[in-house]
Amino acid sequence: RIKLTNVRVTHYTDTLTFRLLDPDLKTVAEGSIPVDEGQEIREPAKVTGAYYLEVAPGSGSVRVQIENRPVAEMATREDPLPLFTSNITRYFYVPPGSRGFKFGAQDGGPDETARFVITSPTGRVAFEADGNYAGAEMEVQVRPEEAGKVWTLRAEPMQDVSFWLAGDVCPYLSTSPERVLVSAAR
What we know:
Blueprint: E1 2-7, E2 16-21, E3 27-33, E4 38-41, E5 52-56, E6 61-66, E7 73-74, E8 81-84, E9 88-94, E10 100-107, E11 114-119, E12 125-131, E13 137-141, E14 149-157, E15 160-167, E16 172-173
Antiparallel strand pairs: 1-4, 1-6, 2-3, 2-5, 7-16, 8-15, 9-14, 10-13, 10-15, 11-12, 11-14
């Protein structure tokens, strides 16, 4: 079961659109949700594999609730993860042998700063920044004993910001360490 809620942001009243895709990228469900309303998607999984949820909230925001399933948000250069004043903590996987990866961010302007902290599995703060980003990508070093493990990312945006992971890192962010997606060769 998936529940989507179209959350109003200031005076915007955009309708949210969504699509649920099966592992073959065929549409299983799609629709639209007016502002301040929600909708449940109840589609039994007909095939085994990863399903994909695309949401387009326009100028609004969306609350996504998924029960009993591992879930991850994608954060790549091509599809950065947008946030609006939502402090989040997410977990991701750095594969064995990785010596580093890139963290990139794009803010919404001079008054729309964000703080990011990336922590390795040893507790080392591998990256920390607070300010504007303007699409910059920064290097995050991985020590040998930190590769092949789960890392933590904390984001604290003042307003609009989007961010991504690139290079030798899995760009799927999970809400708990137990739900992190790892490579099949692990």
